[in-house]
Please model this.
Amino acid sequence: MQAVEEYHRVRKQRDSKQRDAMNACVVISASLVLLLSLLLSLHIRNDHNEWRWRNRLWWLPSTFSSTSGIAADLLVTNGTIYTSDSSLLFADSMAIRDGRIIRIGNYSFVQEVSGYGTKELNLEGAVVVPGFIDSHVHLLFGGLQMARVEVRGVNTKDDFIGKVKEAVRNMKEGSWLLGGGWNNDLWGGELPSASWIDDITAHHPVRNTAYKLYEVENSILLKVWLSRMDGHMGLANSLALRIAGVNSSMQDPVGGTISRNADGEPTGLMIDSAMKVILSCIPEVSVEERRQALERASRYALMRGVTTIVDFGRYFPGAPLKHSWEDFTDVYKWADLSGRMMIRDVVQTTGRRLSQWIFLGGVKAFADGSLGSNSALFHEPYADEPWNVGLQVTDTESLSNMTVQSDKFGLQVAIHAIGDKANDLVLDMYKSVVSTNGKRDRRFRIEHAQHLTHGSVAKFSEQGIIASVQPDHLLDDADSAVKKIGLERAQKGSYLFQSLLASNTPVAFGSDWPVADINPLHSIKTAIKRIPPGWDKAWNSGECMKLTDALNAHTISAACACFLDDDIGSLSVGKMGDFVILTAHTWDDFITQGTSSVAATYVGGLQAYP
Model:
């Protein structure tokens, strides 16, 4: 512990000599930007100034020579280091200076750059992997949800109602009760309705000055919004519906559905772009709350070994574009200018560097909804709703025009597609855009790519489209997929990770947090075993991945998916010294245990967790 404190003390001394030296201004048409996608290296802390010394890293090329005679700041020794670099997959030691790796290999080779002031971290045989990259998160939303009502994992109707009832006790009259994470499949599939919670939220105990509970004669009204775990459906109580003007005569918005009962009355469920009707009535979260959410979420990610994320913002189908820009100016830019956030210093030819810490990665759009909300777009109808094939939440012409124009500006495009028809639609559109704008290294992405038709895998490979997937989603979808699309379709076309990989399709892993937990080690295990809760065998065992392939999907492949592979994603000379120490003490233990966890996370050679 004393060694760590001394290490930070030295960094703080260097901090006093460093100041921000770079600003960039980027003007991008708001009509083209559907989402401010930020690539964030996660480290926010109260003693944030120690990170400013890393300004120099931008000027240090990734081809930095290890033979310059300069002593390393840190030697990491006596471990089993998996590098994700095919030219040297394993090493036992590495040396880091100014945040970048200057040597990696065996101890005698690495020890040559030890000198005055060099610290040594003896791993005592522990396994080390590159810092994990989460290719798809909603960072601020996740941070906000951590402080709200949590109904994730609730598996009965009574428990769901009980959670709401418990939360109501501390609410003020007229306020909004916000939260989410519910999954109706856990309690048999019945969808919740406003009637479940109206009685609870219309009249509840309050505290008097003596802090005793008593009942009041007049109803105390609360407005409620609880989003489903996939973020494509939410439940409002009757008061929230009334305030938003939702009634039997209101038409479904384009790309969304207002759930109704047999009499045509709204049930309280709002699907995809219909959610904006309720969300537009909820007071905007304060700037301070969002800044706290950023810090809260960042610390949580670091605890899970995540050092870089691709942030897809608070965006949902039909949401105002201003949210992304407000989060950028109020939160990310503030964190940048105040030195409270350390961001990867990488200029991408296909994007825009806004500062040495923040990178504008590209744009995102939606093709369809989600399986759990029966709004993912399929070629064939849902088995449990024969009249329904899902929703195309953005019309083809608008989607195509956005992609063409964004691509002309050199922006990377990522499109959400879950159903097989949505994936085919996006794949065909991407091919058309390449034909129109010409060939170049654009690295188009499809986010989720959960259900594919026969032949879609080949399209991914032929076009070089990145499949940005979230393994832990299959755990939530396994049972419901069979009910919703039938056993044959679920078995043949769902979560085809290994098929995509075998076809040489670039596969990048993420979590979609807070839809699923941000936990790379768990998602790697899921990709390897594919055993859903309550199952005794894998869901389509032919799609199980190897450990190293799954690790690469969360490291080097994820870096390639966002044009950061020259600086992060593997433990290689010239790259950033971002690494994770695991509790496993041999590679065999890591393979066989299946329960390894994060012991420590380092960002640029500095300990960020614990």
Q: What stands out?
A: Residues 304 and 519 are 6 Å apart (CA to CA). Confidence is low (pLDDT under 50) at residues 1-37, 43-67, 203-220, 342-351.
